[in-house]
Amino acid sequence: MATLGTTPLLPVAEPDGEAGHEPAARRVGRATPYLFLAPYLVLFTVFGAAPVAYGVWISLHEWDYLLPVKPFVGIDNYRELIDPASAVYEQFWQSMQATGIFTVASVPLLIAVPLGIALLLNRAFPGRAFFRAVYFAPYVLGVAVVGVLWRFVLDPNLGLVNDVLAGLGLPSDTAWLTSLPWAWISLVAMTVWWTMGFNAVIYLAGLQDIPRELYEAAEIDGANAWQRFRNVTLPGLRPVLLFVVITTVLASANMFGQSYLVTQGAPGEETRTAIMYIAEEGLRGFRMGNAAAMSTVLALILALVSVANFWLFRERGEGSR
């Protein structure tokens, strides 16, 4: 029995389990996020990180998958890519130049044209759902179907394009697939027609997330259509624009099917892209070490471009505040 002026000692409850140990429920709670991440981490490791590491390992060897011995050569495969006297130097950088030409020519169109289409399709008008489906429909086609279709349309003798030009009284003997700059124009036009629907849908989703109150406030302040687009639409689309720019650059830089099926690298090897040359070097020439080194260099360049895009959009975002 406690006496006056003293404080009775109350029993202290021990935590679950042994004294001084963290409760089991709390440990499980802390592990829950990792349990949810586990399926993705497993898939990323098996299909992402492990193949990348294996590809880098192959690039350090003279790797012919038909031979049992694959000698370790260190960075010799990378050294050949920067040595003008090597057998692969000129062809690799020519293919990289072709990749750059296609990327520079196609990316601005695949950013601007789908944005204009999305702005139109975001308005209310009869048949809007139909036109949304029409613009997106080509994207569901495989590259083989698109390649065969455009090769037939652009055929210099039987193609629809030259027939239409002849009917209009215009020159109709253009070699769309075997002369420059028409081969590049054909590849870019084909790619824009084929893939612009995907970017348009992404833009459309972003436009519908911009609050209408912002446009109403801009109209009350007297902003015209261009001012509303510049000060309301573009800032609201900044995250979507970043996604579209990065994915479009990566897709254009990895272009393979269009060139392989439509122009077959013609004229000469002018439209042979880096991925096309890497595939030829590794799968047809049985030089997987060189091909892996080229793939690693291309991946590093694209990673730097992606980082630059993140930095550019962040700088613009901070400057507009």
Chart the SSEs and their pairings.
Layout: H1 24-59, H2 76-81, H3 89-121, H4 128-136, H5 143-153, H6 160-167, H7 182-208, H8 212-220, H9 225-236, H10 238-253, H11 257-263, H12 274-284, H13 288-319
Describe the model.
The chain has 321 residues and is mostly helical. The chain has a single domain, classed as MetI-like (MetI-like fold, Orthogonal Bundle), CATH 1.10.3720.10. The protein has 13 helices and no strands. It has helices spanning 24-59, 76-81, 89-121, 128-136, 143-153, 160-167, 182-208, 212-220, 225-236, 238-253, 257-263, 274-284, 288-319. Helix 3 packs antiparallel against helix 10. The N and C termini lie far apart (69 Å).
List keywords for this structure.
single chain, 321 residues, mainly alpha, 13 helices, disordered N terminus
Helix and strand sequence: HHHHHHHHHHHHH
Structural class of the helices, strands and pairings?
mainly alpha
Question: From the alpha-carbon coordinates, what is the Rg to the nearest angstrom?
Answer: 29 Å
CATH superfamily: MetI-like
Distance between the termini: 69 Å
What would you call the shape? flat
Would you tell me which CATH topology applies? MetI-like fold
The number of distinct helices, counting runs of at least 4 residues, comes to 13
**What is the average of the pLDDT values?**
88
What is the second-level CATH architecture? Orthogonal Bundle
Helix content: 55-70%
Largest sheet: none
**So what's the CATH class?**
Mainly Alpha
In the residues, how many domains can be counted?
1
Strand percentage: under 5%
Number of strands: 0
Q: Catalogue the unreliable spans.
A: 1-5
